[in-house]
Amino acid sequence: MVACDTAERQHTAGLIERIDRTGPALDAVFHAAGTNQVLPLDELTLAGLAEVAAAKAAGAANLHELTAERELTAFVLFSSGAAIWGSGQQAGYAAANAFLDGLAEHRRGRGLAAASVSWGLWGGGGMGQGEGGDRLQRLGLREMAPERAIESLAGIVDRPNATGTLTVADLDWARFAPVFTLHRPSALIGDLPEVRQALDADASARDGQDGPAHGTAQGGALGQQLHGLTPADQERMLTELIRAEAAAVLGHSSADEVEADRAFKDLGFDSLTAVELRNRLNTATGMKLPATLVFDYPTPELLADHVRTVMSPDEGTGSPSIINEIEQLQSALSAVAGDCELRDDVTRLLRGMLSNWIGTQRADEPASTDIEFQSATPDEVFSFLDQELGLPRSTPQTN
Ligand SMILES: NC(=O)c1ccc[n+]([C@@H]2O[C@H](COP(=O)([O-])OP(=O)(O)OC[C@H]3O[C@@H](n4cnc5c(N)ncnc54)[C@H](OP(=O)(O)O)[C@@H]3O)[C@@H](O)[C@H]2O)c1
User: Fold this and answer.
1) Which domains are delineated in the chain?
2) Using CA positions, which residue lies closest to atom 9 of ligand 1?
3) What is the rounded average pLDDT of the residues 20-39?
4) Residue 391: how many CB atoms within 10 A of its CB?
5) Which residues lie closer than 8 Å to 123 by C-beta, 6 or more apart?
6) Which of 31, 210, 264, 325 counts the highest number of beta carbons within 10 A?
7) Model pLDDT for residues 209-224, shown as the tens digit of each residue
8) What single-letter DSSP state applies at residue 39?
9) Mean pLDDT in the chain?
10) 150 CA → ligand 1 middle, Å
């Protein structure tokens, strides 16, 4: 073992001379040196980029140039998934790793041994630990046991004619795919069956999002808390909930750090945290909200207004909930067989309901249709309902 700064050409040249002097003959090169850097792109300086590129790209270039005339059985470069799918706040690191992938192609084009392995997340220590690693795990990268990763590496090195660049990662697609495709579909992963399955599941979970939904225990409890409050109080309660969940997602200790009228984007939300907030709100409200939530309703206040309208529609200006329920009733009635023995009872109940409803009509609002309820046929009643509610005409029923 010899200490060597591979970014320094003289150091690397000295190392190779030493191996030549002492033997055994240099047969394979594994380049695993690297430094990570977590930094927003607009804070990345040229000096910072040079620093993160040195160990990776300069080291690889030195090793390549200094061994190009030799017959090596393996020239393996440790690259990263950051170069394959891009990794937020790792622009310099991603670029340095992409250089390794390019170098492997370049070497293979010249008939030289080369494999660049873009790793996912390693367990067991190293640069995948700590805050950066935690974020990758939230994104859906599972830690790979070093033994498994080394096994894959052996498989790659033992097949020198296989592709020169390869990604080895353990991904939880249900987490990774919705975040990665939040803004646009991905040609890179879109055709993988696991990704299609994950995205289909995410999309079908959103179906019916516009109805009041208390599909979780927490959602049911919240619905009850909202019940009976004024719209203003409901909105206040939901704004507090959203601020608290947003603070938890962003790692703040208090909801005070999330201003109600500040844009989620300015609060620091990105694709990962947007999906995480959506998931937390789905649990808290029982709703099935889309992952683009924080972009569709860009501040906690606006989002609270949307959630309130969906959760307690009767309290707002419109009343979509009652319309939904009548539509459901209508389709249930359509399914009742013409000779069903309950038919007369159902008709009587509907007539009674309609009479009551008309009776509660606002005094200044004349009934829009003349209809004799006691003697009306079911078709006339349905037709009246359609007209009153502005629905498309239902299929006439025969009695
Ligand atoms: N761990 C992961 O999850 C992961 C994922 C994808 C890719 N990778 C890649 O796999 C490789 C190994 O990762 P790791 O987790 O073992 O990283 P690590 O624990 O941070 O080790 C990196 C090593 O590179 C050495 N190094 C840095 N600059 C050097 C230079 N100029 N010359 C010679 N050595 C230098 C460091 O030496 P000093 O300690 O003396 O600075 C350190 O021993 C890296 O290239 C990394 O980019 C790792």
Assistant:
1) 9-171 (3.40.50.720), 172-207 (no CATH), 217-315 (1.10.1200.10), 335-389 (no CATH)
2) 78
3) 94
4) 14
5) 143, 144, 145, 146
6) 264
7) 444 555 678 788 888 8
8) B
9) 86
10) 15
Tokens of 330: 């209508």
Residue with tokens 């080394």: 150
Spatial strand order of the sheet with 170-171 comes to 121-122, 141-144, 170-171
Ligand 1, atom 20, residue with closest C-alpha = 127
Q: Is it the case that residue 73 has pLDDT exceeding 50?
A: yes
Residue 54, both tokens: 């040195």
pLDDT in tens, 77-119: 999 999 999 888 899 999 999 999 999 999 999 999 999 999 9
| Residues having CB within 6 Å of any atom of ligand 1 | 4-7, 32-35, 54-55, 59, 78, 80, 119, 121-122, 126-128
In the chain, the N- to C-terminal Cα span, in Å, equals 93
3-state DSSP helix/strand/coil % of the chain, to nearest 5: 55, 10, 35
CA separation for the pair 143, 315 (Å, rounded): 48
